[in-house]
Amino acid sequence: MNKIRLAVLISGRGSNMESLLRACAAPDFPAEVAVVVANRPDAAGLAKARDYGIPTDIVDHKQYAGRPAFEAALQQTLSRHAPLDLICLAGFMRVLTADFVNQWPGRMINIHPSLLPEYKGLDTHARALADGKVETGCTVHYVIPAMDEGPVIVQRRVPILPDDSADTLAARVLLEEHQAYPAAVRIVAARLQELGDA
Ligand code: GRF
To answer: If you average pLDDT over residues 74-96, what whole number do you get?
Structure first.
């Protein structure tokens, strides 16, 4: 079975990207990373990707007059790495327009540090703590033109401990994110391969 080709989009640290690169290094993993693209030239994940020998590209949103121009450049960059089967948003901090999202129907996924539909948006851990929750987690979901919505592929649950801060909780959730993202890519790859779409 051919491996599906991924583009991983990042904005910063890139630890989820690295979990995908590590998973893709296994011969039996059904995906390979064709390119890592950052919208910030200083994204730390870029250097990590290069360490793995993965091609990287930067599409700096600050260099474009508006979202449509930025997204046109992003799409052009992605097309240079065609064929691509799946776009993985991994800490990518730009909201994408419906026009862009609709170019990748069923072919764009995102990881979010909460049990969606709870705590869409930012500061998920602080909000879960403020609400006195005893459990949170992470979600990998298909991207649709509505932020942090779209069908769930994988969720992993994480207990909230009495003395947790937002930082300790984020660290515990992140460990689960690093398991969840490769697991979700396996599932999506199997679906695409079953459809003969990869
Ligand atoms: C992760 O918590 C992810 O769920 C969220 O942004 C963070 C990115 O971290 N969307 P990293 O860049 O993957 O280390």
So the answer is: 97
Residue 53: which domain range? Answer: 4-195
Count of the separate structural domains present in the chain: 1
Is the preceding omega at residue 83 within 30 degrees of 0, hence cis? yes
Please name the residue whose Cα sits nearest to atom 2 of ligand 1. 113
- Rounded to the nearest whole angstrom, what is the distance from the C-alpha of residue 196 to the centroid of ligand 1? 31
> What CATH number did the domain enclosing 76 receive?
3.40.50.170
Task: Report residue 197's pLDDT band, with 50, 70 and 90 as the boundaries.
Answer: confident
Q: Is 112 among the catalytic positions?
A: yes
Q: How confident is the model at residue 190 (pLDDT cuts 50, 70, 90)?
A: very high
Residue 144: predicted pLDDT: 98
Predicted TM-score (pTM) of the model is 0.97
Residue nearest to atom 5 of ligand 1 (CA): 91
Q: Residues with Cβ within 6 A of ligand 1?
A: 10, 12-17, 90-91, 111-113, 174, 177
| Given the residues 112, 125, 141, 178, the one annotated as active site | 112
Give the strands of the sheet with 4-10, arranged side by side: 56-58, 31-38, 4-10, 86-89, 108-112, 135-142, 152-159
What distances in angstroms separate CA 128 from CA 99, 101, 177, one per listed residue?
32, 29, 17
